[in-house]
Sequence to fold (1396 residues):
Amino acid sequence: MARDLNRLLEPRSVAVVGASPKAGSVGGTILDNLRACGFSGSLHPVNPKYEEVLGVPCVPAISDLPPEVDLAILAINRNIVLRAVEECGKKGIANLVIITAGFKESGEEGAKLEEELRTLIDRYGLNVVGPNCMGIINSSERMRLNASFSRWFPPGGEIAFVSQSGSLGETLLECFEDAGLGVSRFVNLGNRAGLTENDFLAHLAGDDACRAVFLYLESFADPCEFRRLVTSIGKPVVVLKAGRTVAGAAAVASHTGSLASPDAIVDAFLHQSGVLRVSTIEETLTALRALERGVLPAGDRVAILTNAGGAGIIAADACVQSGLEVPPLSDRLRDGLAAFLPPEAGLGNPVDMIATASSEHYERGLELLLEEADAAIVIFRPPLVFHEPVEAVGAGIARVAEAQPGKPVLVCTLSHAATVEPLVAKLREAEVPTYAMPETAVAALSILRRARELRHPDRSEAAAEASDRAAAAAVLDRVRREGRTGLFFDEGAEVLAAYGIPVCPYAYLSNIDEGAAFLANVGSPLALKIDAPDLAHRFEWDAVITGIGTETELGDAFNRLQGVMNSLNLDGPRLLIQKMIAGRELIFGLEQDPTFGPAVMFGVGGTLVEALKDVSFGVAPISERQAERMLRSIRAFPLLEAFRGQPAVAIPPLVRIVVALGRMGLDFPEIAEIDLNPVIADEHGAVAVDLLIRLSEE
Amino acid sequence: MARDLNRLLEPRSVAVVGASPKAGSVGGTILDNLRACGFSGSLHPVNPKYEEVLGVPCVPAISDLPPEVDLAILAINRNIVLRAVEECGKKGIANLVIITAGFKESGEEGAKLEEELRTLIDRYGLNVVGPNCMGIINSSERMRLNASFSRWFPPGGEIAFVSQSGSLGETLLECFEDAGLGVSRFVNLGNRAGLTENDFLAHLAGDDACRAVFLYLESFADPCEFRRLVTSIGKPVVVLKAGRTVAGAAAVASHTGSLASPDAIVDAFLHQSGVLRVSTIEETLTALRALERGVLPAGDRVAILTNAGGAGIIAADACVQSGLEVPPLSDRLRDGLAAFLPPEAGLGNPVDMIATASSEHYERGLELLLEEADAAIVIFRPPLVFHEPVEAVGAGIARVAEAQPGKPVLVCTLSHAATVEPLVAKLREAEVPTYAMPETAVAALSILRRARELRHPDRSEAAAEASDRAAAAAVLDRVRREGRTGLFFDEGAEVLAAYGIPVCPYAYLSNIDEGAAFLANVGSPLALKIDAPDLAHRFEWDAVITGIGTETELGDAFNRLQGVMNSLNLDGPRLLIQKMIAGRELIFGLEQDPTFGPAVMFGVGGTLVEALKDVSFGVAPISERQAERMLRSIRAFPLLEAFRGQPAVAIPPLVRIVVALGRMGLDFPEIAEIDLNPVIADEHGAVAVDLLIRLSEE
Fold:
């Protein structure tokens, strides 16, 4: 159930506790901001030392506030925050913004204070932003509220911005203003003792003034809830998540006391949630500008129309580097263009109309190109000699763009100069975005393409395979009862089988004759290994012999491993025999990520995965579509395709393994890790040849 | 011998042929630019239709010009350009800028005209810029010359800018002005019928007004000469080379009629030349700003000092993503910082001094950090409450930076606002660069790091291995005399041996007994293959049998390949036998790139190289250092290191193969391609197991 944040964001009356007329006082600055922004409700400074602050009558205490106060801003000494919160609770002021710092972020004592604060929040059912925050802003037509000490008050718009960091939040507000981006709501979450990004996501889902949500996050308050909310929010969610690398993650840890997850898992989690992740401030601006105005392209085919050859080349290069296609023109299009362009024009893609191109050339050229392309980048640099007003070019482009509402058209002027301003203005009327640099236009188009791919987040649970949770639970219960954390191979095989993951046939040998029978039955080559729940890496202990072809070799191997077995101090070791099978070597794994829970890993096996660290991740639950994307996202994926006479590996069996591992992780949080290494796959299916399942200690 | 371009760039007197008072006339615009820029010499419009143009007395013909004219700008109809050039030649005007378009870029007729133009240039020994260009600019203190129709006249500075494209050149001039970058010379090369980038590089090497050179190129006029010039120029050369991708390359081809080379070879060529390659306009600006002001860091260790946590994290992330290190602080430094920072400060790296940090904190903190780091990124966002003028922070940072002249300090303000201007100004005095965004500061630092690596371009010829050019020549002569382009294995082995590349021992078998003897001699396993100069891909024709262990298997293989040999219509086929050897499988190749000449390729062999296309290139000549870098630059390089019990592959033998292949390509341009696939390498050395050498057809 979403919390009711309407009175927090649209209060009738606001109290500023700790407002003071002293220069540089945070409370005074907030009071000043509230007055300056055009807030239409009543304001009440609270401060026992003053009769009035900045001309506004002051009350000595929270208990003296009038009953209509919906929101109290606390900008007071840390030591009196809890008392003030309690007073607000008693007074029935349900919405609080706690600016004061010195809580969790400042050490043990602060963390204890924050715990007490949480207790009060729960007791009185308060909506609390902060502590340690910059405040909140509402910049809609209905309500203008600057309950923050930000020096920037955005001009209003349709983007809601929720920031974990205050200073970065203010920096971004400044950037948004420079970029002409309209922000409707700004919230600096601070320490999130009360409200989190999830509360605001739930609120923004039903907020008509919000067309897209942007979050700057350093950690997730509740990733599971975040995923559920984003998947169903129905509007683009852009996330700038800091801590992508180990160094960054270390800084996050010391900054907010949160634990950052390995970035590959964060990436998988955000993508699976349907979030458009950006990685720099620059990319954030490009993404939000594109999403604010843009149409999403139906496909990847880009046409480039230019009157400046070099810039066309740069745009084409940038397109291909971003994975967009710049296909050659059809003969029909070339003929169509040749009919009105001068013979010097280049009729490739880019179409170089040369410097003499007129507004009519632009209009007709773009019209033709959009017949075959999914999107167009139009480069117009006003040439020295241009016999028309530049806005004529803009008007022509705008007409074509409006006639083709499903195809993004991005215009690039190669200049910020005054000469291009009328063109930019004309295009803005038609919501056609303009950029100075071709690379930025391409970056914007590439973001629109990613947004298209994310538009329908995958809400489908993977089709339920016949999984026998009870059978797996029985095995795991037995293991735990026996006080073990490791599983024997046969136990692991039983658990995997319960989730439909096939395991390569095997048998335990108590004597050499059973081996001979196995060999006679299934043929060679065979592998013989020592199995024990506390033997994790067989190869390192010489506990595996492969390539056994004959009964004699089997006898030798049997004796040798008996020797190894005796030399190692293992828990109930046994000898296990398997037929060796041919195919492509893969690796699958499951781990419990401290933030995101069960995470499934996939890689191409053997030396490759170790040397190249070329693996992909998925966070459970994983849909079939997500699993397939995960498989395809490793660099070495071409090794699984038809290759040197070998047919392509069948993908659906691999998808089933990924989905099943994810489900096992959710069903049994006590499973600390699973390693299926190798899994051997061919054109028919995939089987786990070796396996390791380990339960957590407690 | 460098051409004398002094009078071209610093003429005493300039003629503008085709100047006209009509609005939008190119010649008139140039005359106007020449007057407006403050050119101190005399100006002479040439036009039979006017007595004067824009108030400047006009002469009817080139022959009427006074003798002191050093430079003529031609902005006339294409059909009269050749006549005008001839007149200039006769008159002794040695320097020309031909603005007029309609030459090579416009089709066959124009190309013919340009050929005739080249003849005239040679006949009269002219310095010609263009045709089809925007002109040239000199913006030094000594001479202000805007002999172009550019609407931007740079304010002067120490960067020389040579652009193949006119429109992009003008765009960049505008960007440079916005970024506050000073340009001393600007040349738009146009079609390069006369002067090329190489002529200007030769000139700029001795030009004291030039501290760094920036080139925008779509193709190279003479790559070999370019490399020679850049290697010895002694100042940073930054190149924005368009046509990185296939789509871009297609556009370059239609734009300038030049053939773009596969981008990996371009990259290798530029790096080997010591060029700092940039790939976007944005990166160009960052690079030039960094090089204009910056010191190069001695190492990769970066310290980050901030009063805004989130921005510190973003900077740390960006550092690590660029390959810079953000190492943890030593205990000594942590203690030193803890002595004066508040307890809430984060003493990791980034050091988060929190919003209360003073100018003294910045100065002392930076001083400490630079004791251990090679460079520092300092983030200062003026907080709401700051009790000092912001320039005090700038002054402190500047003092530390000046005391540590070998360590780059980059400052980031998180804002463009007026509040930070005094800080920026204070830092500019000390040549400490400032940036709004942390990612840009990191990008700049990363460029300085690349510049450091390129600072000493590798002029060393690789140590001359004992190579026997004559022996190889004798083999190739024989092959050519026999009318073949393909070589037999033994011929190839002889050529490789002449350059010190070892080949796996082999023998030809005329009967089965010879095979038995070979087996007895060297042991198993053996490989038997058909050898013929016109059999390129043995595996595809079932012309190889591997893993032969016994005499019987050898007999079977012999008979089977005899059958294959008879079924294929080959040129003198023979059966060849080799011992199969174990080790890491590599691939080396040589091809003749149409632009850059002999290019050596390296990859890890087997299925990997085919599936992942993970190869690197070097353009001959290749020094040993360059060869080693080339080997290390493939993604799969970890596969060659110590791994799963195998020792690391020895690198010097691989370096020798790369260097030798490059030298063979230079010695014998008639070698169209060499494939050494596989080369088997181990901890001792590397031998070619199979080889293919093909000569070009003519």
